[in-house]
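Try this one yourself first.
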């Protein structure tokens, strides 16, 4: 057998030269059941980009403890957010794919749009192989993480590289590594906050809650924290908010290590005692609503706030398939088509 995979002469040497856009997001279990969640978490948490502790020690902890306990608990949470179209993250990503494809066509670009999930399905290797067979040899990858982070963006790159390493005829490749300060992202976030304020009134505090990361990663050189700060600064400048109008926090802590601070849940719990009983929460690291926004913020953190004496809690949805968001994606990829 040949060492590198190639296409037969027919498909390999003619009808090529097509351009494809590949959207990548994190992924989600196939079903909200303990066995499907176990499969998903086993792949996710074994990724050395995600958990950076010595492999042997981590495999013992992961398989000995975490994968015995967490799947049942997480499956119960996934059940709460599951829809008739499946996991929100996947369903929303599919809508983004369809709409981006339509917008690029409208603008006269002859590029197809594809979707892959870093963990679970549709997988990165399956999607790339299908694109290869369709004659795509110009590839633009847009990982849907606005702020570069090694556990997310670099991990998406690893999965793509791992597949391409096996190919004989490599595509031209453009990999978008971050868009945390892209003007269209800032506009889309500001518009969505403004629409909420116009409809529901300006809250006493806007909480901008980002997915967390171990603090150690920041000291090792991951720019994620600084990129989150920049996204927030640009959005609040655009909205003309004052320092007291908002707070930046980090959610979804996993494990016992110190993660980026301040933590979302502790901050939200402390607000009512300071007289802040009316808040709106937005999660600018999530391009699609998912477990971490729908269950953790809209569910858990709402209870935390109300339990501490808070009165009005609003969650401002992720940008999902908003027109602004799709336009941003189109403008980000267009220069490379
Ligand atoms: C274990 C370490 C984790 C790091 C580091 C991490 C970073 C990180 N994650 C996202 C985006 C998402 N994470 C999601 C779920 C999720 N994340 C972790 C762990 C880490 N994430 C776990 C264990 C889980 C699974 C949920 C659970 O069992 O509790 C999701 C949602 C997936 C879904 O199906 O809805 C997203 C999206 C970012 C942006 C990030 C950046 C540093
Ligand atoms: Fe995560
Ligand atoms: Fe969570």
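Now uncover the answer:
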């Amino acid at each position: 057998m040949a060492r590198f995979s190639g296409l037969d002469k027919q498909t390999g040497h003619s009808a090529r030269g097509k351009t494809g856009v590949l959207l990548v997001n994190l992924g989600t279990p196939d079903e909200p059941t303990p066995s499907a969640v176990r499969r998903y978490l086993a792949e996710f948490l074994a990724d050395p980009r995600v958990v950076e502790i010595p492999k042997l020690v981590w495999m013992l902890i992961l398989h000995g403890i975490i994968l015995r306990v967490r799947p049942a608990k997480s499956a119960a949470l996934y059940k709460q957010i599951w829809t008739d179209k499946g996991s929100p993250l996947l369903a929303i990503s599919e809508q983004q794919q369809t709409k981006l494809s339509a917008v690029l066509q409208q603008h006269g670009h002859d590029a197809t749009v594809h979707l892959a999930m870093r963990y679970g399905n549709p997988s990165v290797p399956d999607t790339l192989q299908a694109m290869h067979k369709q004659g795509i040899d110009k590839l633009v990858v847009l990982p849907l993480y606005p702020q570069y982070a090694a556990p997310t963006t670099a991990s998406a790159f690893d999965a793509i590289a791992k597949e391409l390493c096996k190919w004989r005829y490599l595509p031209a490749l453009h990999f978008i590594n971050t868009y945390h300060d892209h003007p269209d992202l800032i506009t889309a976030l500001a518009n969505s906050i403004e629409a909420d304020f116009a409809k529901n009134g300006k809250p006493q505090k806007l909480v901008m809650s980002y997915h967390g990361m171990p603090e150690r990663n920041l000291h090792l050189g991951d720019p994620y924290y600084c990129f989150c700060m920049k996204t927030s600064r640009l959005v609040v400048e655009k909205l003309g908010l004052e320092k007291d109008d908002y707070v930046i926090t980090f959610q979804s802590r996993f494990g016992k290590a110190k993660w980026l601070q301040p933590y979302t849940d502790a901050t939200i719990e402390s607000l009512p005692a300071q007289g802040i009983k009316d808040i709106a929460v937005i999660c600018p690291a999530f391009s699609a609503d998912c477990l971490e926004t729908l269950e953790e913020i809209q569910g858990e953190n709402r209870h935390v706030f109300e339990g501490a004496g808070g009165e009005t809690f609003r969650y401002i949805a992720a940008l999902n398939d908003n027109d602004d968001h799709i336009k941003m994606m189109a403008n980000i990829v267009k220069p490379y088509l």
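Discussion: The domain at 183-316 is CATH 3.40.50.1400 (Rossmann fold). Residues 211, 252 surround fe (ii) ion (ligand 2) (CB under 6 Å).
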